[in-house]
Design a protein that fits this description.
Blueprint (H helix, E strand, L loop, with lengths): L5 E5 L5 E3 L13 E5 L10 H5 L7 H4 L6 H4 L17 E3 L1 H7 L3 E6 L9 H14 L4 E5 L3 H13 L2 E7 L5 H9 L3 E5 L3 H15 L2 E2 L5 H7 L1 H9 L7 E5 L4 H15 L8 E7 L4 H8 L24 H10 L3 E5 L1 H13 L10 H11 L8 E6 L7 H8 L21 H8 L2
Parallel strand pairs: 5-13, 6-7, 6-9, 7-8, 10-11, 10-13, 11-12
Antiparallel strand pairs: 1-2, 1-3, 4-5
This protein binds pyridoxal-5'-phosphate and zinc ion (ZN).
The site of pyridoxal-5'-phosphate has 18 residues, from helix 11.
C-alpha cells in the first residue's frame, strides 16, 4: 500500500495524526485540519487540467466536488459516494446588484445542490471517508441542512443515520428531508449548541462516525465551492467573496481551498473574504471587532435558523482564514436579512433566509465604503428558497413577529366571480 497523501494536524498545537485515524479532535481538544502532501501531483495540476473534466460522463469528473479530487481527497472513483453534487449556477441580477449598490455582483447558488444546500459538498467527502473506514453508523447535530444531507447520503451508502436537531427550531423543508430519507431523527429539548455537545459525546462513546463540520473531511469538500466559483469565472479572481457564517465551517473551507490554490500557483492572489453573521448569533463578529477570543453567545437567536449558532466549532479555522485573506466580518439584523431575501427571491433566484445575509451584508459593506462600488464581488447563496417556506409566507403576509414586510407580496383573497377578479388584474 502506498503512503497516504494527507495527514491530520491540530489547529492549536500542531500535533500530527494519521490521515485515517478515527478521531474528531486533537488530544488537546483542538480541531483538526486535513494537511495534504501535494508534491506528487503539483506538477500535473493546472486550471486546464480541471477544465477538461467539465462535461465528462464519469460521475467523479461530473461532480463539482470530485472534479477537483486531487485538491480535496485523492480517493479513487469507485470509493466515492456521489450524487453528483455541485455544478451550481452563478447568477447576475440587476435588481439585486442595484439593491446592494454594485455594478458587478454575482451570486453562486449552492441551494442548487442535490439536497438543496451546500452541505452536500462536504457530505459527499465525509460519507466517502466513512465508507473507506468501514463505518456503518453516522450522526450529526444540525440546524437542518446538515441532517437533510447526511440522511440522503447515508441512505445512498446504506448506512444508518442519526440526526439531532433543536426542538421546534428547524424549518420544515429540512425536517421533512431528514424524515423522508430515513434518518432516525432525535429532537433535543435544547438549542443547536447543546445538541452538538451531546452528539460529540455520543459518537465518542458509541464509535459512531460524526459528520458535523468538526469533521475535517467535510471542510475539504466544501473547499470546492471556491474552486468551482473560480472555474465559473474562468479563474479570474474576484475582489471579494461574501458568505454567511454560523458554525463557521464553510468560510474556513473557502479560505483554506483558495490558499491552497494560490500555493499551487493556480491563482496569483486571494480574494478578500467577508463573513456575515446575524446580530443575534454573532460571536465571530464580536471577536473580530474587539480583537478578543471567542465568547459564545448563550442564547443565539435569529430567524435565519441555519446560522442560529452561539458557539461555532470552527472559530479558529475561520479567524485564521479571514486574517490570511485580509477579510472582514459584518453583522446584519433579521429585518435586513429578510428585506435582502425579498430582493433575491423577486429576482427569480430565491434562497433561504441564512443565505441572504450574504446580500444584506454586502449592501452594508458597500454603504460603509469597505467594498468599493466598482469592485467585483461574488456572494454565496447557501440554501434553497423552499427550505423555509413558513418564513416566506409569514413575511409576505406581514405576520412575522418583530419584522416588517417591507417588500411584501401578499396573496389576495377574492370572491369567485370574474368582476371581482378583474379588479385585481387591472389595478
Ligand atoms: C450550514 C448553513 C450555513 C452556515 O454555514 P457554516 O459552515 O455553519 O458557517 C449558512 N446557510 C445555510 C443555508 C446553511 O445550511
Ligand atoms: Zn492539539
Amino acid at each position: 500500500m502506498t503512503a497516504l497523501a494527507w495527514k491530520l494536524t491540530c489547529v492549536d498545537c500542531a500535533t500530527d495524526y494519521p490521515g485515517l485515524e478515527l478521531r474528531n479532535r486533537c488530544q488537546c481538544g483542538g480541531t483538526l485540519d486535513v494537511v495534504h502532501d501535494f508534491s506528487a501531483v503539483a506538477d500535473s495540476l493546472s486550471t486546464a487540467y480541471f477544465d477538461q473534466r467539465l462535461g465528462a460522463r464519469l460521475p467523479a469528473d461530473r461532480s463539482g466536488v470530485w472534479r477537483f479530487r486531487e485538491l480535496i481527497l485523492p480517493l479513487s472513483p469507485d470509493e466515492i459516494v456521489t450524487k453528483p453534487e455541485g455544478n451550481t449556477n452563478l447568477y447576475r441580477a440587476a435588481r439585486v446588484a442595484d439593491y446592494v449598490g454594485l455594478d458587478d455582483f454575482q451570486l453562486k447558488h449552492e441551494g442548487e445542490n442535490p439536497t438543496a444546500s451546500f452541505k452536500d459538498r462536504g457530505m459527499t467527502v465525509g460519507i466517502s471517508l466513512a465508507k473507506k473506514l468501514g463505518m456503518t453508523r453516522v450522526a450529526c447535530a444540525s440546524t437542518g441542512n446538515t441532517s437533510a444531507s447526511l440522511a440522503a447520503y447515508a441512505a445512498q451508502a446504506g448506512m444508518k443515520a442519526y440526526v439531532f436537531i433543536p426542538e421546534g427550531k428547524i424549518a420544515y423543508g429540512k425536517l421533512s428531508q431528514a424524515l423522508a430519507y430515513g434518518a432516525r431523527t432525535i429532537q433535543i429539548a435544547g438549542d443547536f449548541d447543546r445538541a452538538m455537545q451531546l452528539v460529540e459525546a455520543l459518537c465518542d462513546q458509541e464509535g459512531i462516525y460524526l459528520l458535523n463540520s468538526i469533521n475535517p473531511f467535510r471542510i475539504e469538500g466544501q473547499k470546492a465551492i471556491g474552486f468551482e466559483l473560480l472555474q465559473d469565472l474562468n479563474w479570474e479572481v474576484p475582489d471579494w467573496i461574501v458568505l454567511p457564517g454560523g458554525n463557521l465551517g464553510n468560510n474556513s473551507a473557502l479560505s483554506k481551498g483558495l490558499y491552497e490554490l494560490k500555493e499551487l500557483g493556480l491563482i496569483d492572489r486571494l480574494p478578500r473574504i467577508a463573513v456575515i453573521q446575524a446580530e443575534g448569533a454573532n460571536p465571530l463578529y464580536t471577536a473580530y471587532t474587539t480583537g478578543r477570543d471567542l465568547v459564545p453567545v448563550a442564547q443565539a437567536e435569529t430567524i435565519a435558523t441555519a446560522i442560529r449558532i452561539g458557539n461555532p466549532v470552527s472559530f479558529q479555522k475561520s479567524m485564521r482564514g479571514i486574517l490570511a485573506s485580509d477579510g472582514i466580518v459584518e453583522q446584519v439584523s433579521d429585518q435586513e436579512i429578510l428585506d435582502a431575501k425579498a430582493q433575491v427571491d423577486a429576482a427569480g433566484i430565491g434562497a433561504e433566509p441564512a443565505s441572504c445575509t450574504t446580500v444584506a451584508g454586502a449592501k452594508k459593506l458597500v454603504a460603509r465604503g469597505v467594498i468599493g462600488p466598482k469592485q467585483r464581488v461574488c456572494g454565496i447563496l447557501t440554501g434553497h428558497l423552499l427550505k423555509d417556506s413558513d418564513t416566506v409566507v409569514g413575511y409576505h403576509r406581514d405576520e412575522l413577529a418583530g419584522i416588517k414586510g417591507n417588500y411584501a407580496n401578499p396573496p389576495i383573497s377574492v370572491a369567485a366571480n370574474l368582476a371581482e377578479v378583474l379588479k385585481h388584474i387591472r389595478d
